[in-house]
Amino acid sequence: MTLRGIIGVLRWLVGVAAAAAVVMLFTLRGGTSQSDTPDAHLIADGAEVYAQHCQICHGSDGLGGTGPALSGSVAERFPDPSEQKAVILVGRSAMPEFGTRLDDHQIEAVIEFTRYGF
Q1: Fewer Cβ atoms within 10 A, N terminus or C terminus of the chain?
Q2: Distance from C-alpha of 37 to C-alpha of 73, rounded to nearest angstrom
Q3: For the CA atoms of the chain, what is the radius of gyration?
Q4: φ, ψ dihedrals at 83, nearest 5°
């Protein structure tokens, strides 16, 4: 391979890495608070969403029911909030999808509530 070819490959790799970094930044933000300080307004909004859509399966206290317990275990189960968001959006096992039922703010809020509100 020529020096020009190597430089072309390196430019391509740098471009791919930069694109991946941008995607990761947006994904990791996942629409949720990533700071060490939970967002009290988001938690309050999330409590309402949880009461309307989640507590029937996960329990009013988050300790489970027909769905698994969430209180105290969400951050362990989903260290990256974007993983939790994906489950909320498309569902998993017996959990239905909520991507068409909840808007972005509601999803962000319920993630914040289940991580910090119980």
Answers
A1: N
A2: 18
A3: 19
A4: -70, -40
> What's the topology of domain 31-116?
Cytochrome Bc1 Complex; Chain D, domain 2 (1.10.760)
* Dist. CA 89–CA 1, nearest whole Å: 46
The structural domains of the chain, with segments of one domain joined by +, span 31-116
Angle at the Cα of 37 from the Cα atoms of 75 and 110, rounded to 5 degrees: 50
Residue for token digits 């329990």?
A: 59
pLDDT in tens, 68-86: 999 999 999 999 999 999 9
Sequence-distant (6+) residues with CB within 8 A of 81 are 28, 30, 32, 34, 111, 115
Distant-in-sequence, close-in-space partners of 103: CB < 8 Å, separation ≥ 6: none
Q: Report the C-alpha gap between 63 and 71 in whole angstroms.
A: 6
For position 12, what pLDDT does the model report? 62
Structure token pair of residue 33: 């608070």
